[in-house]
Amino acid sequence: MPTDIQTALNRLIELHPPFWKDWGFLISLAVGIAALGFAMGAFFEARQAKRAATAAGRTVKLQTVTIELTEIAQKLDRIQPDILFNEARDFLAEIQRRLRRIMSPFAKDAELSGPIGAVLQALEKAHQSLKLVRPTDPTKEAEAPNAVYYGIEDDFAMINNSVADLLGLFEKQTFDFGDEDAQS
Amino acid sequence: MPNPENQELMVYIDQLIEATRMGTMQWKGVNPTTYLWEKLEQRAGARISLQRVERNVARRVSSGAIQTVSAVNYIFQVFEVNGPQSIQRLSVDSADDPELTQKLNDLFVVIKSGVSRIGLDFLKDILPHH
Fold it and tell me: Are A147 and B34 a contacting pair at CB < 8 A?
């Protein structure tokens, strides 16, 4: 009897072989593995492309920032000795607004946070100096020629220097100087 | 070596200090850091201004690093006034002549005190007396 059972089982296995011995399964498995490989390849390519696009976007943004900082630096260069208090106040307000807008996205950047802090400090100092030349009687401001200029010229020069430092760092970031390669 | 012009100017500044202290020269504040004295006459007049400015000066500290510190300077100017026109006759920046800084600081302090005194005396006069 046991021999009959064994024979019957062998016969059953011959008639219904396990699924992993089925050619159909093996072909499907090969196709599945190939598809997974292609999918992973596509994922890594897409991630690389996203990184490249982000880097390109950052470069464009940095170049825009560089252009704006250059404009501000040129404006700071052109301050005239006969500047009046209200002109100086408006000018300071304008460059402060523009600089804050430009710098705020980079405030937490490790390399830029120091120079950004220096610009903010210079702006604050210029505000304090401007308060010290606020005319008692605006109609008689001209009686002390260039008083506003003398009061603020040094602080505006300090803003200009800080902006120039920042400009250099932004320009550096738009080019690859190989610093990271040198460190690794 | 002291500059002879500066020595002469210091004598004149001493005279300004004395005249201001005595009340024969009355200054007015143009802004919180600038004072002006005017002698206006029909044909020609004069105007003197003194401004206190704070500047950033780079100094090397003991570690060898360069640090920016604030330094007080004075700008002293004398104008000849002909009607609406004024011609600058003298301009001194104590940043260029450090020997004048202390003397101009003395003048500034006396002027500031004098202007405050005028204001306080006016306030005292307008207060109701019991």
Answer: yes
